[in-house]
Each structure stands twice: as C-alpha cells, then as structure tokens.
Amino acid sequence: MKLKKTVIICILTLIIFLAMITVSTIIQYKIYTKNFNLKIAQITKNILDENPNIKKQEIVNILNSKDIVDNNILLKYGIELSKDSAILENYEYFKIFILFNIGIVGLLWIILIIIIIKYKRNNNKAISEITKYIEELNQRNYSLKIETNTEGELSILRNEIYKITVMLKEIAENSKQDKINLKDSLSDISHQLRTPLTSINIMLDNILENNKMEEVTRIDFLKDIKREIVNINFFIEAILKLSKFDANTITFIKKEVYIKDIINEAIKNVEALSDLKNVEIVINGDSNLKLECDLKWQVEAITNILKNGIEHSRDYSRIIINFEEYNVYSQIEIIDEGYGIDKEDLPHIFKRFYQGKNSSGNSIGIGLALSKSIIENSDGYIEVESEINIGTKFVIKYVKY
Q1: Rounded CA gap, 107 and 24, in Å?
Q2: CA distances from 207 to 46, 215, 226, 254 (A)
Q3: Cα–Cα separations (whole angstroms), residue 379 to 227, 375, 382
Q4: What is d(CA 74, CA 70) in angstroms, rounded to the nearest whole number?
Q5: Of 6, 77, 86, 192, which one has the fewest beta carbons inside 10 Å?
Q6: Which string of b and e fits 181-206 if b means at least 16 CB within 10 Å?
Q7: 162, containing H or E segment
Q8: Is the dihedral of CA 73, 79, 80, 83 positive or negative?
Q9: C-alpha–C-alpha distance, residues 40 and 45, integer Å
Q10: How, if at all, do strands 280-285 and 380-387 pair?
Q11: pTM of model > 0.70
Q12: Of the candidates 330, 320, 324, which has an alpha carbon nearest to the alpha carbon of residue 391?
C-alpha cells in the first residue's frame, strides 16, 4: 500500500510540474507575441506616416510573406537574426523563463528525492519493527500485536507474522495446559493404581504370614487378588487406548457390519459380570440393520457402557438394548434399571477418572470416557438421561453420509 501511495504521489507531482511548465511556456509565448506585434505595429505606423500612399494590403502581404529576408539587413544595427532577438525585452523575458523552468525542474527533483527518502525511511522503520518483533518471538513473548489493515508487501508480511504469533501463542498455551493435564492424569492414574495394589499387598501379606489360614479364606483372598489384577489390567489397557486417541494414532478400519453382531460381541465381554448380578440383557431391533464402522472399536465402546450399566444395576434387574435406523442416522439405546445418576454428576460422567456419588467400588472412571472418544471418532455422538432410583438411558447416534 505504501509503495502504491508513493508511486501515485510521484505521478501527481510530475503532472503538477508538467502543468506548471506548460503554463510557463504559454505565458512566455504570449509575451513574445505581444512584444513582436507591438513593435511591428510601431514600424507599420512609421512606414504609413512616411509613405501614406502605401496600401494596407501590401503591408499585410509583407507580414504574411514566406520569403526569406537577407540576414545582413540588420547586421549593420548589431543584430544577428540566428543568434539575437531583435527585441531586447524578449531576450530579458527569455532569461527569466529559463531560470524559472530550471527552478521548477530542480524543485521537482528535490520533492521526488524527499518522497523516495521518506518512503525508504518508513520501510526501514517497518522492517526494524518487524525485526524487533521477531526477536521478541524468539524470547517467547507472544503478547505483542502487529496486525494491520493496510495492503502492501510489508503489511502482508506483518499480518502473516501476526498469524504465526497467534498460532505459537495457542501452541504455548496448549502445551502449558497439556502439562497440567498430564500432571493431573498422572496423579489420577497413581491414585487409581495405588488402591488395588495396596489391597493386593495386604492380602498377600496375610496369606504369607498366616500359615494356619483356613483354605476357604485363602481362596477368597486369591479371588479378590485376581479381581484386583483384572481391574488393573482393564485400567492400563483403557489408559493405553485413550492415549492412542490423544496422539491421533488410531486408524479405524471401516466396513459394513450388522449392529446386532456388535451388541452380541459386547454382551459376551460382560457375560460373567451380568451372570454374577443376575442382570438380564434384552435386545430389540432388526437383525438386518448394518452400520459402517470398525467392529473391534465399536464393540469396545458398547462393552464399556454395558459394564457401567451392570455395575450400577440392582441384582435381578434388566438392561434393554434397542437399535433402529432413521433417514440420517442409526441409533442404539442402552437402558438399565439401576440406581440412576445424580443431576450434579450427569454433565461430568464422560470425564476421565470422574466418579460420581453412586459410583461402584470397582469403578475407575475411564470406561465411559473411552466409549465417548470411540463413538465421536466414528461420526457419532452419545448422550445420557437418568433418574435416581429409576435408571439410566444412553443414546448413541451414528450419522449416515
């Protein structure tokens, strides 16, 4: 924009000065013409006074004649036509106009030089500001702003640097937040592992130190240890899976699969838990309905939701799974008859390591977070409704393209 503005100013300046020179030339021409005409009029009057018989037409013919007059006629008066002006006044005016034109051209050059110097100075100032700004960026100072609404090469460069600054600032803030999140996650992971490991350690100490322990008690301890190990294994696997989502290293292999096959595989994974609590799982839906997805990961997502439902269900209750297809999406509903989720906990149940008021003792608060990540990465979304002492309903919708 500055270069364009400078060029326009230079062009306008040239036009103004050309106009001034043109006006000067026209004025000079008029003065010369006036002086010549006055002198010719004086000569004509003198001739007519001396020779009254000369016809006016003869004088007009002489003035308009194209005949070349001998230069030697005026030499005896000290006037050489090829060098000197017969009218001295015109010569004086000629010198004045020459000086005036030289002054105009000189002034033009001075103005153009001033414009160029000012343009370069502004450019150097802008470059200096950009250089200082880049030095500030190297010092990790992202608070400065150099965004401009003007055009031009340097302005475009400033705006691009500003965009980079915004991006670097976001990266720095995200990095800081990532460190905070990592710290919190490590704290949560440590807490989640410490409890079962402490329990295992206590039970092993009892087994090792009490040689007279009854066999039934020993077997109960071993079962409890196994259960804790299974929980730890599930927890570690879930953490590893979530970390893959965070690192964007998961690749879904999508193909058409029957929705009922997904549900049946998930039910197999929780069969032992449902049998333990005598929870009946009922399926309703068209067996021919298909879904384009990664079978393995969708089974993982449904398994975690079912596991959560069974853990929060009463003994001898039911979990109902409904699935159906609509014009723009396919839907799976998982409804339990459990204790329900408190309204204060409902907005947070998909957060990692979150444990609500009605969480079971075996809950580690990561299964639902993993399910949400899987579903959302499969062009779907999940929502939940719940009422205390009535039950909870998870609704999963997969958008069709």
Answers
A1: 15
A2: 152, 10, 14, 49
A3: 35, 7, 11
A4: 9
A5: 77
A6: eeeebeebbeebbeebeeebeebeee
A7: helix 153-209
A8: negative
A9: 8
A10: unpaired
A11: no
A12: 320
Of 125, 128, 123, 169, nearest to 145 by C-alpha is 169
Residue type, 30: K
Q: With CA atoms as reference, report the closest residue to 293 among 338, 335, 252, 251.
A: 252
Task: Decide: helix, strand or coil at residue 378.
Answer: coil
User: pLDDT of the chain along its 401 residues, tens only?
Assistant: 566 677 777 788 788 888 888 888 888 888 878 877 777 777 777 777 777 777 777 777 777 766 666 656 666 666 666 665 666 677 777 778 788 878 888 888 888 888 888 877 877 777 777 777 777 766 666 565 555 555 555 566 666 666 776 676 666 666 666 666 556 656 666 766 777 788 888 888 888 888 888 888 888 888 888 877 877 777 787 777 777 777 777 788 889 999 999 999 999 988 888 888 899 999 999 999 999 999 989 998 999 899 889 988 889 999 999 999 998 999 999 999 988 888 888 888 888 776 666 565 555 567 888 889 889 988 899 999 999 889 999 999 998 87
Write b or e for each residue in 322-357: b if 16 or more Cβ atoms lie within 10 A of its Cβ, otherwise e.
Answer: ebebeeeebbbbbbbbbbbbeeebeeebbebbbeee
| CA–CA separation, 380 and 398 (whole Å) | 4
